[in-house]
Amino acid sequence: MDASEEYTKMVADVVKKAEDSAFVADMQKMLQIDRQLPKNMHIGDFNCPVNNASVVPTSVHELRPANVKIIAAMGDSLTAGTGILAKNIFGLVKAWRGMSWSIGGDETVATVPTLANIIRKYNPNVKGFALGVCDRDDPEAGYNIARPGDKSINMPEQAVMLVNKMMADTSVDFQNDWKVITLFIGGNDLCQFCLDREKHSADNYVRRILEALDYLHAHVPRAFVNLVQVLDVRMATMLNQGLVCSTIHVGFCPCGAYGTDNTYKELTELLNDYWTGLDGLVGTGRYDTRDDFTVVLQPFFKYTTPPLTPEGKADLSYFAPDCFHFSEKGHAAAGLALWNNMVTGREGGAALTPSVSRSSPSVRRPRPGIWASSSSACIRIIPPSTPARTATGVTRDASWPKTPASRCPRSTTPCPACFCPSASQLESLLSSP
Q1: Is residue 145 within 8 Å of 71, Cβ to Cβ?
Q2: Does the annotation count 77 as an active-site position?
Q3: Active-site residue 42, yes or no?
Q4: Is the distance from CB of 281 to CB of 209 less than 8 angstroms?
Q5: Alpha helices, DSSP H only, in 345-403?
Q6: CA 168-171-172 angle, 5° bins
Q7: What is the pLDDT along the chain (433 residues), one digit of tens a residue?
Q8: Sign of CA dihedral 125, 126, 127, 132
Q9: How far apart are CA 175 and CA 135, in angstroms?
């Protein structure tokens, strides 16, 4: 039984419990949660001019949004789009790939703010984005290779599948088209680490991702790879609200949502080992041996915590009915956070929690900033300017960056800051309607 079949069986087992009256009552309660984006929300215009966009660069360090011709993604159910528009647990077997934070291509950036739709603002002819509800083998999936239930051990296989799919596509120029590939994996490894500690060790996790990246490095020309740090699955303990979610988490994330104090301590150490392991891997410069290829670590999920309701509980409107996968609001926030990480080239990033940004982020070494050099101009994130309490009760300073709104990071070029949402727009997105 492969990962996808295991995942389907796990959902089916939960559905069988839906005959219980208390379970049904809790499902009815979950139906009242509004998980959609406010329809009148204005994300941003994303219409700043991009210098020399018509000139196709030969170096990844000169890449601009309009130069990107192909977008792709690898990962698990969070990238596949599991449960995004699900109204109840029965919808968890569907993957809304067209709304996935890193590669969804449904509608436009105004209503579905994903990385793919943002890039489409600069190159409407970009290939690879996913559409609608589909499986990864369907034509509508584009280059969304993610599969629900997959772990780091499946990444080398996904890398091979992605390369084969791109090479077989006659609508793209595999050798010359610039590509953005996003790899995000590890949640299922962490959620099940206590069931097999050796299999899910940090060494094995990093080694498997290394194998996948090595394959991409050896076979894919002209590529910018986003390696996104794994989400902190310890937040599952906050999401154990109600009978439905508590029951589902037994199958989805037993080691994150439940366990002894020692298990939680082990998970904390393993999570940090995962983060530092990927940081060390990218920091070796292993993937900077060619001018047309790089891997950049995008760390925003390290600092992502669930927003809180006025009662101090996790706001479930950012999550699917299983209180585990992201809803439409959650995917929108993740898509914008990824873009912000890419254009600022900084360690910090926007989080799901309103009004939170990392305090005084530092960059230990230059990060290859996609369209983040001084010549690209008009790119900056304006985070909310007030502190906020996170899900762990910690207040973080939200004053970064100090750069005036009329200037761009790493640049003296004036700009109206229209690539990224303003403070009020971000607050509108991340706050419940």
Answers
A1: no
A2: yes
A3: no
A4: yes
A5: none
A6: 80
A7: 665 666 566 556 655 655 565 655 655 666 556 666 766 565 666 665 555 567 899 999 888 888 999 999 999 999 999 999 998 888 889 999 999 999 999 999 989 999 999 999 989 999 999 999 999 999 999 999 999 999 999 999 999 999 999 999 999 999 999 999 999 999 999 999 999 999 999 999 999 999 999 999 999 999 999 999 999 999 888 888 777 788 788 878 889 888 788 999 999 999 999 999 999 999 999 999 999 999 999 999 998 888 888 888 888 889 998 889 999 999 999 998 898 888 776 544 322 322 222 222 222 233 444 443 322 322 232 232 323 333 333 222 232 222 223 333 333 333 333 333 333 443 344 443 3
A8: negative
A9: 27
Catalytic residue among 325, 327, 331, 422: 325
Catalytic residue from among 77, 357, 376, 428: 77
34-57 core/surface letters (b: 16 or more CB in 10 A; e: else): ebebeeeeebbebebebbeeeebe
Q: Is 325 a catalytic residue?
A: yes
Supply 169's token pair. 């596509």
Which candidate in 76, 150, 189, 315 is catalytic? 189
Predicted model pTM: 0.78
